[in-house]
Structures are given as structure tokens and as C-alpha cells.
Write a structure and sequence with these properties.
3-stranded antiparallel beta sheet; single chain; 59% helix; rod-shaped; Arc Repressor Mutant, subunit A
Length: 145
């Protein structure tokens, strides 16, 4: 029985070592989970969501459109006559099959349209400004009233 205190002391020391080791592993696991979460969030930003899914708040819309596709869609819409930025955004959203009720997506596309139309106007490709309707710029094709 004289060995019992030494055995118990050794076991307590070993238990303490294991608890410290488990603590270190739990911290490493928490860091790995955080890293994985960040990587998955980054993947989400670069992949367009599947049909019917909501767009993430910080989605890169540049990946949604091919080069100058947005300008081409807007010119297609303007072939019927002048339209404001909101109308162009509604046309683009419908043409791409996106969620028309997503306000953030609509606002982001409107900003991209203004930029695309200004660049097209600057390049003198036939896109002209016809003033404003409320806060929205009215765009048309050269000579449209």
C-alpha cells in the first residue's frame, strides 16, 4: 500500500500533461476551423450562386458578366428607346435570370450599368445621356429622343 500515493501522484501528473496537450489541440482545432471558414467564404465570393440561391452580400459581380456583356445587354434594351438606369437593371436581371426581388443585387447592377454606360459614352459607341428621371440617368442610343 505504500506505493499507492506514488502511483496516484504519477497518474495525476500524466492527467495534467494530457489536459495541457488536449488544450493545445483544441486551440489548434479552433484556428483550423476559422481558417476553413475564411477559405469557404472566399470560395463563395468567387462562385456565382446556383439558381434560386441568394447572392452573398459581397459577391464579385465582375464574375457574373463576360467582357462587355453588360454594355451589350444595355444596348439591346436601348434598341426600344431611351431607358433609365433602373429599367436597364431590370432588363439585365431578367436577361440573366437573376432574382428581381434582391434589392442589393439590383443596386449593385445599377452602379455597374452607370459605369458601363459612361465608358460606352466616353468611347463614343453610340450611347448618350438624355438627362435624368428623378435620381436615375436616362440613357439612349445616338439620336434617340
Amino acid at each position: 500500500m505504500t506505493n499507492d500515493p506514488q502511483v496516484i501522484n504519477t497518474l495525476r501528473t500524466k492527467a495534467s500533461e494530457l489536459e495541457r496537450h488536449i488544450g493545445k489541440l483544441e486551440k489548434a482545432l479552433a484556428r483550423a476551423k476559422a481558417d476553413l471558414s475564411h477559405i469557404n467564404a472566399s470560395i463563395t465570393l468567387f462562385n456565382a450562386p446556383a439558381a434560386g440561391e441568394q447572392f452573398p452580400l459581397h459577391f464579385n459581380l465582375g464574375r457574373l458578366f463576360k467582357g462587355r456583356e453588360l454594355g451589350a445587354l444595355c444596348r439591346e434594351a436601348l434598341s426600344d428607346g431611351p431607358k433609365d438606369t433602373r429599367e436597364l437593371a431590370a432588363y439585365v436581371i431578367a436577361a440573366k435570370g437573376l432574382d428581381a426581388d434582391d434589392r442589393l443585387l439590383r443596386n449593385s447592377i445599377q452602379l455597374r450599368i452607370v459605369n458601363a454606360m459612361r465608358m460606352a459614352e466616353k468611347r463614343r459607341t453610340g450611347v448618350v445621356r438624355h438627362g435624368k428621371r428623378g435620381a436615375a440617368v436616362v440613357w439612349g442610343l445616338g439620336g434617340c429622343n
